Amino acid sequence: xxxxxxxxxxxISRNIDSARYIDELMRAARFSDxxxxxxxxxxxxxxxxxxxxxxxxxxxxxxAESSPLIAVNPIYMxxxxxxxxxxxxxxxxxxxxxxxxxxxxxxxxLQGLGEQRSHQDRYSRLGEFIHIVRQLLASTRPVTFNGKFxxxxxxxxxxxx
Length: 161
Known about the structure:
Oligomer: single chain
Largest sheet: 3 strands, parallel
Shape: globular
Strand order of the largest sheet: 1-2-3
Structural class: alpha/beta
Strand content: 5-15%
Number of strands: 5
Helix content: 40-55%
């Protein structure tokens, strides 16, 4: 039996003051660095002031060890784009990027984005999303996928030999 490593990711509450929000995120990221935590949780949603991928890059560029745990919702981003970001950050910063795969956001946000899918369909879509991201990150060959929610022919996002 292998040992399981516990990874701790502090989070901060959302803040409507953008300057204060970024300062608090960076303080939490530096706190993670100093105290041996894995990184910091970055929320996704219509109410976040800074796109989590943008602040993830900022954290990676301004900390020594902190790795972001980025909330990823298929309604906001395509799996190919997620794989490209993860691959790019790993190449640029030589650090892990953790993904917190989610399906939900505020009901008003779902409605505002025209999301008509049921709760179950959102989870099914997330399953396909995760499958594609994993394939893109692991494969040295182009990825072809044809599912209920996503299709790709010969996509090659990341890994090269």
